[in-house]
Amino acid sequence: MTSLHENDRSVLIDLAEKAMLERGLRSEYPADVLAELATIQGPAAGSRDALYDLRDLAWCSIDNDDSRDLDQLTVAEVLPRDRVKIYVAIADVDELVEHGRAVDGHAQHNTTTIYTAAKIFPMLPEKLSTDLTSLNPQEERSAVVVEMVVGPDGSLEDSSIYRALVINHAKLAYADVAAWLTGQEAMPEAVLANNGLADNLRAQEGAARRMRLLRRSLGALDLETIEGRAVFDGDTVVDLRIDERNRAKDIIEDLMIAANGVTARYLAGRGFPSIRRVVRTPRRWGRIVDIAEGYGFDLSRSPDSRALQRFLEKVAATHPVRFPDISLAIVKLLGSGEYVATGPGEKAPGHFGLALKDYTHSTAPNRRYTDLVTQRLLKAALAGEAPPYDEAELDALAAHCTKQEDIVTKVERQIGKSAAALLLDSRVGEEFDAIVSGAAPKGTWVRLLTLPVEGRLTEGFEGLDVGDRTEVRLISLDVERGFIDFEAVPKQGRGMVLV
Predict the structure, then answer these.
(1) What phi and psi, each to the nearest 5 degrees, are found at residue 253?
(2) pLDDT band at 499 (very low <50, low <70, confident <90, very high)
(3) CB of 376 within 8 A of CB of 99?
(4) N or C: fewer beta carbons within 10 Å in the chain?
(5) Please, what's the b/e burial string for 298-333 (b: 16 or more CB within 10 A of its CB; e: otherwise)?
(6) pTM above 0.85, yes or no
(7) Residue 325 within a domain
(8) What's the confidence (pLDDT) of residue 105?
(9) d(CA 361, CA 364)
(10) Looking at the domain assignment, is residue 308 inside a domain?
C-alpha cells in the first residue's frame, strides 16, 4: 500500500521539528554548541596514560543495523567451575563533553536522543556521538569498564569498575546475530573474521540467560510488546515494521541491566549520591488482578511481582499469539518509570518491573543525559575526588530528565502516529480487531491487532478498560496532529482478551 502524499519523509521531518519546538525541545544545535564543537578534535593528550590496556580483548558491539552511536562493547571470559566473567565497556563521553559548557548544556536541555519516524535528532552532535565518543570498529577509545563474575546460577559473585583503553573488533547487528544463534542464517562475516568470537558470543549469551532466569525467579517481569517502525520506499511510507525481540537483543539487555545494578551499588558503596531509574508499585494493580482472573489466575490484592511473572509465564505458554497484547496492557497498567536522586545511605524506591532495588542508567551516555551524569559521578569516585554534583543539583536533574523524557515520548509517539496516518489514508471506514491500550478520564485508546497502530476510541468506549478486546472502525485521520480516531463496532465476543 502506498501513501497519497508525494513526500512523506519531508512531511514527517517538518512535523517532528514543529512538535519539538512547540514542546520546548531543540531540533538544531545553537551557535555556541557549534563553536565549541569546532574546537574538539580528539581526546586530550596524556589523558589515557593511567588507563588499563584492554585493547586486545575480543570486544564487539551488538546494536541495531543502522546504529552509528555505539555506547557499549561486551566480551566474556570463561572461568573454572562454570563461571563467566563479563566485561561491559561504556564509551567515555565525559572525556570530550565538558561539564557545564555549551555541548553539555544542549544535552542537558533535551536530555536524550529523539527517535522520530523519518529523522533522528541526536542528543550530541554526530561529530561526537557517531565518531569521537562512539566505540567505532578498529578505533582506540577510552571507556568505563564494568567487570562482573557470573556464577552457574546467574548470581553475581564479584564485580569491579575501572577505566581502560578498548578497541571494538567487530561491529555486529542484532538481526544477524540472532539469526545465526537460532540457526536461521550463517555466521555473520564479522564473527567469522575474529577467531574465537563465536564461542565468546555463546558464552555471553549463556551468562546473560542465567542472570535473566535468576531475575525472573525473583520477580522480574518478562514482557514482550509490539512497536511499529515506519518503513520507507524512497520518501514514501509503505509499511509499519514490528521491532521484534530476539536472542541478540536479550544478551545486551541482560548484560546492561546487570551493569546498571553494579554501577548503582558502586556509587552507594563509595558514599556518592546518584540518579536512580525507578518504577514504583503499580497504581492500577487492581486492573492487573482483573486481567489475570480472566485467565483463571489468582493474584493477591497486594502488588507481587513474582506472582505477576508466574502469570505472564502461563500466558506466554498457553496464548503465545496474544502474549504481546497482554504485555502491552500490563505495561500500561504498571505506569511510567522516572528518575529519582538518591543521597548517600538513602534507599531508592526500586524498579518493580526488574525486581531490583538498586538500578541506574549508565550504559548509553551518547544517547541519555542521565547516563552522562552517572559517568561523571563514577569517574570522580574512581579518582577519589568529590562528587561533581551536589544532592540539590541531582534532585533538579532527576526531575528535569523525567519531565523531558515524557515530552520526548509524546513527540515520538505523535510522529509515529502521523506516519501511521499517512499509511492508512485510503483505509478510512475499514474495521479492525483491537485491544484497549489506555483508559482514563481524558480518553480511551486502542491498538490494532493486525497493524502496530494506536489511536483514540472516540465513540463506543463506555465500559471498556485496558486489556479488553473490541472491534473498531477507522473514522478519521489527521496527519499533522498525529490523530487516528476509531469508533467501536458492537459485536458478539467483545470483552476481555482470552484467546
Answers:
(1) -60, -45
(2) very low
(3) yes
(4) C
(5) ebeeebebebbbebbeebbeeeeebbbbbbbbbbbb
(6) yes
(7) no
(8) 98
(9) 8
(10) no
Question: Do 158 and 226 contact (CB within 8 A), yes or no?
Answer: no
* ∠ Cα 16 17 22 (to 5°): 100
- Whether 283 and 355 have beta carbons less than 8 Å apart is answered as no
Domain annotation covers residue 480: no
Query: What is the tally of structural domains in the chain?
Result: 1
The set of cell numbers assigned to 53 is 590496556
Half-sphere exposure of 105 (CA within 13 A, CB side): 11
Which pLDDT score, from 0 to 100, does residue 6 have?
Answer: 64
Q: How confident is the model at residue 323 (pLDDT cuts 50, 70, 90)?
A: confident
In a domain, 453, yes or no: no
Question: Cβ(245)–Cβ(253) under 8 Å?
Answer: no
Q: Name the grid cell of 29.
A: 544545535
CA 272 to chain centre: 26
| pLDDT of residue 372 exceeding 80 | yes
Cα distance between residue 377 and residue 380, in whole Å: 5
Domain residue limits at 188: 8-279+338-419
Q: Where are the beta strands (DSSP E) in 105-235?
A: 114-115, 120-121, 140-150, 156-167, 171-173, 228-233
Average pLDDT, the chain: 92
Q: Name the band, by pLDDT with cuts 50, 70 and 90, for residue 347.
A: confident
* Whole-angstrom distance, CA of residue 400 vs CA of residue 209: 35
Cell numbers describing residue 279: 518504577
- Residues 197/58, Cβ–Cβ less than 8 Å: yes
The Cα–Cα gap between 266 and 344 comes to 11
d(CA 490, CA 450): 19
